[in-house]
Amino acid sequence: MAITRPTKSINEIAFSVLDLASIVQGGTPSQSFQHSIELAQLTEKLGFKRYWLAEHHNMPGIASSATSVVIGHVAAHTSTIRVGSGGIMLPNHSPLVIAEQFGTLEAMFPGRIDLGLGRAPGTDQRTAKALRGANYTNGDDFPEQLEQLQAYFQGSEAVRAIPGEGANIPIWLLGSSGFSARLSAQLGMPFAFASHFSPENTLPALELYYENFQPSEDYKEPYAMVAANVIAADTDEEAELLATSIKQSFLNMMRNTPTQLQPPVKNLDELMSPYEKAVLEKQLGSTIIGSPLTVKKKLQSFLDETKADEIMVSTMVYDHNARLYSHQLVAEILGL
């Protein structure tokens, strides 16, 4: 499958950051938030466009469950980079509450807040039921929730979102399949795809989005951002070692035994069966790992395939300094 859009160089598009506020083995949420601040400040200085945080629940290794709160914390410690959600799982919340929360963030940090929305629970079904309570849905009413959220921002609901009403906050739809791709195309909205854990669906979803896009007042042309795991180090071997931490995280999620982010290991193959290895390689198929030269080639190839307008990098690395350095190397590759 080939997407028919103009080919661009990685030096011609924007790059952004996705952060899950990882809690490393033996670490604390407080340390994770401090690391997020340091990474946000660095990537702002390096020239990355936006810094998004993801909503997940009941996961020992992720501290960004109260996503709106963490967004405010990061925005307060930065000054120019856009800060937002990648994403808020709208079925977990009342649209009015999200309108108020993001209206508040926009009032505090004018012109810097993004609202990325997803419809998955961001957790297991038991936790989803605990989050959604008596109003539990499976996400099928996401289009109606989105419409209601937009109405609060527009001030067309009987109940008013204050702050929120009149706020000009860019809304993105996030997806790992075709549902949000089609919906964002129909509504003329920007679309962000989770290629960092759903690589096989990347090109079909993007093709669906590009081909069905209907111009809107804010977007005359489609605008697609694609998230990818990117781990850069001085050598391919060092980067591969660093990448064993995220591989262990995915492996433990496959086993339904999520953990804090584990230290790198040299013998990862010995920790999993051939079947698990095959599934892991499939799920992390778009992960970009290596030296600056390797990462540059793989990023350009990824862009050539997706024809994206922006790439968001997710770098789950155990060592905080190595994570910071990975982003520095990526910025040098891009000439930021």
From TrEMBL:
GO terms for cellular component: cytosol. The lineage of its organism: Bacteria, Bacillati, Bacillota, Bacilli, Bacillales. One of its GO terms (molecular function) is oxidoreductase activity, acting on paired donors, with incorporation or reduction of molecular oxygen. InterPro entries: Bact_Lucif_Oxidored, CmoO-like, Luciferase-like_dom, Luciferase-like_sf. This is Luciferase. Residues 15-301 form the Luciferase-like domain. It comes from the Bacteria. It comes from Halalkalibacter okhensis. To bacterial alkanal monooxygenase alpha and beta chains.
